[in-house]
Amino acid sequence: MKRKSIMTLAIAMSAVMLLSACGKKETSIRLATGGNTGTYYAFGTAAGQILGDKAGVSFNIQSTGASKANIQLIAAKEVEMAIVQNDVMDYAYNGTDLFEKDGAVKGFSAMAAIYAEVVQIVADPSAGITSIADLKGKSVSVGDAGSGVEFNAKQILEAYGITFDDISKQNLSFSASADAFKDDKIDAFFCTAGAPTTAIMDLVTTKEITILNVEADKAAALMAAHPFYTVFEIPAGTYKGVDVATKTLAVKATLIVSDSLDETTVYNLTKALFENKDAIAAAHAKGKELNTTYAVEGISIPFHKGAEKYFREIGIMK
To answer: Do 96 and 143 belong together in one domain?
Structure first.
């Protein structure tokens, strides 16, 4: 009888332990990033390891086609979290520009902007270009066709009264733009990326460049029309031979999450992101740009309730 009681107790304890283990099951999150040689993938991998430990979730980092593809993956419920440009995020949410043909995409919210992707307008000073207004009639690369860069170029040129019909428009990648610039096949190119950018760093070793300013009145008008833009200053000396600071605009690499993620999970992720920014910065240089004020500025779509709860808690949102 005694032995039977012991066996019954052991079985009961095993059942309790099993139920407890089931209750502590980690949330699994699929994070869509970008190409496996790009910044999105590298940052996502570095940050994912730290956030996973601190927020009690497990991450499956996925290499993807970046912003537009990532939003489509969330809409298809193939991932729960992604890194995207905040301008492309805006287009998707409102069904404009890149998403005009596809229509508006819902089912996702903002979690936090994480670092700047700077609109850099590189020009050849020997072509007599000293301002964006001088691009009229010039050969200009505006990024890959249908890319976020192309829409940045279109919007900024229009602020100066210039349309794509007013330039010899080329659709080239950053590296192809730099090569064409080096070979005097184009006079200028748009590059939306973190500064310094590898393609431009390589270019200035053999070619003199200037980086064009976006004047304050034009920047203000652009931000009023497109609230995903923010002002950004590229420090003097960022590129060889560019010895003055450049005032331009930037969009933001932004973490978005599926609305299907619960409030507690997203709160914990947001809290872990900023409370462990030093560890993230040690793992990836872009982590140095993590800032709670920056995280909410220029975000034109609603925040997830979990992220909003954290930002209200620390006084960044009212």
So the answer is: no
Strands 246-258 and 81-85: antiparallel
145 close to 171: Cβ distance less than 8 angstroms: yes
- What residue type is assigned to position 215 of the chain? E
- In this predicted model, what pLDDT tens digit does every residue of 149-159 receive, in sequence order? 999 999 999 99
| Number of domains comprising the chain | 2
Answer with the one of 210, 235, 251 that is the final residue of a domain.
Answer: 251
Domain of residue 289: give its range: 28-114+253-313
Indicate if 40 and 102 belong to the same structural domain.
yes
- What pLDDT digit, counting tens, does each position of 179-198 carry? 999 999 999 999 998 888 88
**DSSP summary character for residue 259:** T
> Terminus-to-terminus CA distance in the chain, angstroms?
65
How many other CB atoms sit within 10 Å of the CB of residue 144?
A: 15
Mean pLDDT computed over every residue of the chain: 91
**Would residue 52 count as lying in a domain?**
yes
pLDDT value, residue 16: 40
CA distances from 228 to 90, 219, 297, 299 (A): 7, 12, 8, 6
pLDDT, tens digit, 9 for 90 and up, residues 39-54: 889 999 999 999 999 9
